[in-house]
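Sample log: Histidine phosphatase superfamily.
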Amino acid sequence: MSQNPVSALRGHLAAISPYSNIFKQPPPPSSGQVYGAVYLCRHGSIEVSYHDYAHFMAPFLQKLRSLQSSGRPFVTGRLSFLSSYQSWITDAHVGNVSNEGLKQSLDLGRAFRVRYKQWLIPASHYSKPELYTWTDSAMRCRSSALAFSSGILGKKGSPTGNYDDHPRRVDVRVKVLQCEDNSHQCDNLRWHKAFSVDQSRGSDKFEKLMQVTTRPIYRRLHNDWHTATPLSATDIYAMQLLHCYDAVANRPTPFEKCFEADDWPGFEYLRDVKYYYSEGYGMLQPGFYAIPWLKAAMTALSNPPSHGPQLPLRIAFTHREEILYLCCLLGMNFHKNWEPALDRVDEDRQWRAALLAPYLGHVGIESYPGRNGEKRVRFILNGDVKPAFWGITHPDSDGGYGFDLVSQWTEVQWRAWQTFSPSRITFLR
């Protein structure tokens, strides 16, 4: 059996994939100047997600405990380790940022300190620039925002709290935003809960596809499973999840012997299809809930602070759903006339959650002067300048679009939003 190194696995983790290149920097605009930037960031890597644990991992672990307590042999061969397997996961791990996630959040802050170092050069009498960072109230978002803030603040992260060699430290103020479920208010960072978005959409397709993606694994393992309780597709998927969360947390994993490299593209595709329907282009109104964010971001960028202590940089930490909503609103990684196949793994697809919304995945909007001095705007996805708007209009050589054109398009979307809700985002001002 071929081994499946963690490095190969990480390419197929979908939305539980860590951000692969923290220090990747977009090329500067040809003018060499950026007026302002607004970023929406997903939180750092967590130990295990509530949904994956509650719906798949916990039921499988309970099934194992029941079989183990019977005292009768029920596994052999590659599954023999399950006879005494005990998971490290407790309630305290569910939904919480891992140590690796905190380290990566700190590193992302350091990367942003390098990316926007032009705003940290001493100027006038302001000794310490101010940066406001917003975060959803969930602990995974708050912890990520605080670690990020330590990085952009200039701390080396050592116990002594020493600072790096940049000329100025940053006064970072982290503001926590609360959100009530079903509040129908968007002035927060948890829109999928505020508007009670149906995240079960596409679950029937997910279940159908799971039978396809787990079939080769079942054929290999079912002879090692000796009990009247059958080895199901959801059992196999749960074992894949346990293996993946081990890998993301850099923990040793006994499940590696169960899987081969060819199993993981199907795992990634299965999760991509789930997110395609619940949060992506398969939604009834893809990207709709991100309209207030784009409106607020464009308003903030229309007149970013150029004098005084406040940096022209705004950063917020949120969840996977909000990142995917914004990607869809902007038409990123859009594949015209594409629908997920449910009888095979479609490798030729643009929709990949690992590229759009990994842990610490982020969508940035930068304003900058164009070649003729006109104001432009470009979109940065995980360190890369990306084309937007479904390819209907083409970016310039810097990867950007006319600021006025994007503002006009945003206003059209905003009018559609106002027919749905009077709420707006005010905290980005």
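Observation: DSSP finds 13 helices and eight strands in the chain.
Observation: The first helix runs from residue 6 to 9.
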